[in-house]
Amino acid sequence: MPTQSLPLIFDTHYESFQEQVIAISHQQPILVDFWADWCGPCHALAPHLERVIGDHAGQIRLARVEVDEGENMRLAGHYRVRGFPTVILFQDGLERGRFSGARSHLQINHWLKEHLVLK
Asked: Contact 23/67 with Cβ under 8 angstroms?
């Protein structure tokens, strides 16, 4: 799947994670937000993640995984997500870093600078 066919911010699921996240991460870094609708900090984090994606002008994407949908909790378990929200950075098919809990867009941008592998 070419990166042009995915929006900068998109929802993904257990069934499409390999194609939409792991495969695409070889072309472009992707933040994956594991969140739940009942989670207050998840809702607090969402606009900050969206702002970070805007700050990076198409250089990074955001995939959102709602853990209460379908098989998505299995996906969270596979990546050993223990609390929500948890954000994982994937690049070149690998996990490059993660954080849990709400953060400001400035904190997230700083975290990204520490974890992105520049090419």
From this structure: no
Q: CA 48, CA 28: separation in Å to the nearest integer?
A: 20
Q: Are 32 and 81 in contact (CB under 8 A)?
A: no
38 an active-site residue?
Answer: no
Q: Is the CATH number 3.30.1330.30 carried by domain 3-111?
A: no
In three-state secondary structure terms, 91 is strand
pTM of the model: 0.93
Structure tokens at 113: 């600078």
Average pLDDT, the chain: 93
Which residue of the set 42, 65, 81, 108 is catalytic?
42
**pLDDT band, residue 58 (cuts 50/70/90):** confident
Asked if 107 is an active-site residue, the reply is no
Q: Six-digit token pair at 90?
A: 């994937």
C-beta atoms surrounding 79 within 10 Å = 16
